[in-house]
Here is the input.
Amino acid sequence: MRLDVLLNVWMMLTLQRLPVPSLWLDVFQKIKALGYNAVSFYVDWALVEGKQGDFTAEGIFAWEPFFEAAQEAGIYLIAVSITSLRAEV
Here is the structure.
């Protein structure tokens, strides 16, 4: 798929650090108002598939509401896979 748009990326959003789905649209709208059109976000695969083959995407790990909020705000999403969450300075 070819993407014919220049991405101005807000780096990084961690889904688990904002575990209130009702706030996601508001956050995306604020990011959009700052002039960004894309957000990269961490996917800590160990949190959704703690044991191989045992995948769960419920509660704060349900991605569909996150994707829907981004789409409604006009934000592109870029997933970044990591092995563990870490503090960033």
